[in-house]
């Protein structure tokens, strides 16, 4: 989605201004102490707000946030309102930060977004945009699992009970006719809930036979000799499904709509830049991963992982509704009322200004 001529001129003027440096920090952040946020001298705070707290995971599926942070897209749109970043390891901790008011806006998977929305009775969160599709695979030990049928009786890891990949695997296993107790993970396939940081070691040691995981963990397992048995993309109509959303606290949206719009504008600009410069964007995302965690991804992991993710502004709302149904069938979620989970008005305003088509909320928009 190319920027409009007016937007390009504005950015050019902004980038030409002298810069001052502000220290970056935030709840849960794992960034290095010398990371900085660059703000144009003379820029003004939006609505007088000092800062906005933005959360994301150290996953390539959160590439919009990684690149938007590293390249300064968010900070440029926010002017002198400081973008403060927080890096999380899992959805529940990010939802907790949003619910407690210590985080304002976050990049997060669909299952945590659904759980956060329903547990607060629809009163705390809104999904305001899309970010990424795809990037999830079932990777197995080829010596132990040679076909899809061979998954029966094996130990398969997912990142966390009830997380997006856990729900997807349980749904797929049920479609194969295998019975699994969702809570314990015991059954005709054993589901091992394993942090993505731990899974490569468990795979290498033989403690698990495979894993249904997001990138870059999937490609890490392949680099260790694993084989991609199934790409989740193949299971969805049009081969697309939401893996990362943008969410906001409802109170923050109501009190600071211009700040939210600025963050969404930066998100749209970032996705456009990523799609126009995929190789450079891949390198930039890896730089931010290194800044956040102290370790960059090797090329044999980074290259295939990045290739499997599609960055999009569309939240793919119909697929989120389907994912909620999968969680209900797995016994992990009571049938949720998702009416009002989306507010795509600010995003569609940004898209209209850039001459791009509006995105749809699948009938789940706020009134």
UniProtKB/TrEMBL annotation:
Location of this chain's protein in the cell: Cell inner membrane; Periplasm
Keyword Lipoprotein found: no
Keyword Cytoplasm attributed: no
Keywords for the protein's UniProt record, in alphabetical order: Cell inner membrane, Cell membrane, Membrane, Signal, Transport
Signal peptide range: 1-23
Stored CDD domains: PBP2_NrtA_CpmA_like (cd13553)
Taxonomic superkingdom: Bacteria
UniProt record similarity statement: Belongs to the bacterial solute-binding protein SsuA/TauA family.
Name used for this protein in its record: Aliphatic sulfonate ABC transporter substrate-binding protein
Species this protein is from: Streptomyces viridosporus T7A
């Amino acid at each position: 989605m190319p920027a409009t001529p007016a937007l390009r001129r504005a950015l050019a003027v902004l980038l030409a201004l002298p810069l001052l440096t502000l220290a970056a920090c935030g709840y849960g952040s794992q960034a290095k102490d010398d990371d900085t946020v660059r703000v144009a001298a003379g820029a003004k705070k939006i609505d007088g707000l000092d800062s906005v707290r933005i959360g994301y995971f150290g996953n390539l599926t959160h590439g919009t946030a990684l690149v938007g942070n590293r390249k300064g897209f968010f900070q440029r749109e926010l002017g002198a309102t400081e973008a403060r970043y927080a890096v999380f390891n899992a959805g529940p901790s990010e939802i907790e930060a949003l619910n407690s008011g210590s985080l304002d806006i976050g990049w997060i998977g669909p299952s945590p977004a659904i759980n956060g929305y329903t547990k607060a009775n629809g009163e705390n969160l809104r999904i305001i945009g899309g970010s990424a599709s795809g990037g999830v695979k079932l990777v197995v030990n080829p010596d132990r699992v040679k076909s899809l049928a061979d998954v029966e009786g094996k130990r398969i890891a997912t990142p966390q009970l009830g997380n997006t990949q856990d729900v997807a695997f349980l749904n797929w296993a049920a479609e194969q006719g295998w019975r699994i107790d969702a809570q314990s993970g015991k059954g005709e396939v054993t589901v091992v809930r394993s942090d993505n940081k731990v899974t490569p070691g468990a795979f290498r040691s033989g403690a698990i036979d495979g894993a249904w995981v997001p990138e870059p963990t999937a490609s890490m397992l392949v680099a260790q000799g694993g084989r991609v048995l199934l790409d989740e993309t193949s299971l969805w109509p049009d081969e697309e499904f939401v893996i990362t959303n943008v969410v906001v606290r409802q109170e923050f949206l109501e009190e600071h709509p211009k700040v939210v719009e600025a963050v969404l504008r930066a998100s749209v600009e970032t996705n456009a830049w990523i799609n126009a410069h995929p190789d450079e964007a891949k390198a930039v995302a890896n730089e931010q991963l290194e800044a956040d965690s102290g370790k960059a991804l090797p090329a044999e992991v980074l290259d295939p992982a990045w290739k499997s993710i599609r960055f999009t502004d569309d939240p793919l709302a119909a697929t989120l509704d389907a994912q909620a149904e999968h969680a209900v069938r797995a016994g992990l979620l009571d049938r949720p009322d998702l009416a009002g989970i989306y507010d795509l008005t600010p995003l569609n305003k940004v898209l209209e200004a850039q001459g791009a088509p509006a995105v749809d909320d699948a009938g789940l928009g706020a009134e």
